[in-house]
Amino acid sequence: MIVLEIGKMSGNKLKKTILEKIEHFRSDVMVPAGPGEDSAVIDLGDSLLVVSSDPITGAEKNAGYLAVNVACNDIAAAGAEPFGIQVVLLLPPALAEKKAEDLMKEIVSTAKTMDIEVLGGHTEITDLVQKPIITVTALGKAKKAELTSSSAAEAGDILYISKGMGIEGSYILASDYQDHLIKKGVSSEAIAKVSGYLKLLSVIPESRIARKNGVKAMHDVTEGGVYGAIAEMAAASELGFIIEKDKFSLQPEVEEICSKLDLDPAALISSGAMLMAAPPDVDLKSVFAENEIVIMRVGRLIKDGVYIEEKGVKKEFKIPEKDELWKFIEKMNK
């Protein structure tokens, strides 16, 4: 018997186990379920409806805030504006009613500040979970001319990410495992800086800029980090890629946390960063600099092959099967 591993299912396994069982047959579904596609797009005639679902399972503090932003980031990556969410809460019996109420208040207030309405959902108490599991389905509207999808990328496109690496992962580590970080020698200054990353989690601003400035494909950087996002975009576009590690740069606080915990920041969950593919002649850095958003080149798409360039040497690359956050959590739980 093959046992499933904790964390996001790897691309090949996901395709074989799940995606190959889904049949695409409706003509109004423009972007169906597929490798590297986090949102479905439905043609309503005069507009497009974009739908995406995401769970929060690895975080505890501010989980409601994270849940809303992570789901809506998928909508933004498709070039759409989120307008509503549905929420499924699976709650353990031991959870106090007040905590359940506070969690829902956090979800509602987060959505409202983003001009997004909570449309409904489902709440269930079950002894099959030990802590709350939140699944948010986000709905968005898109103009046909501004629609982007991971499959729209082309060979030769340059790959950029916004803000930096390890945004969400570093925040979760600092919020939920602060005592452990201190024991490992992480400075209080680094923990304080990363704790402020909560305000960086939305990629809606990047989406609004990118879709009007030559970006053809976007993907939010979630589980698997930068490596995972690049692999998913390439899979959706049926392309290969070269990761340009020599061009990586890290925020000092992220570098400190990852080095003390022996984590690879490029394989660490990073909601708040947007992966964007643009033609070489598009000066994306200048466009984003004008809007005071830092972007960093991380690679390029090619016809086939999976490679990494480091210290001027190109070699074949194997994408890590598990996000660094899950590896850390598993180690802590042993």
From TrEMBL:
InterPro entries: HypE, PurM-like_C_dom, PurM-like_C_sf, PurM-like_N, PurM-like_N_sf. GO terms for biological process: protein maturation. Residues 154-305 form the PurM-like C-terminal domain. It comes from the Bacteria. It holds the Pfam family AIRS. This is Hydrogenase maturation factor. Residues 36-141 form the PurM-like N-terminal domain. Belongs to the HypE family. PANTHER family: HYDROGENASE EXPRESSION_FORMATION PROTEIN HYPE, HYDROGENASE ISOENZYMES FORMATION PROTEIN HYPE.
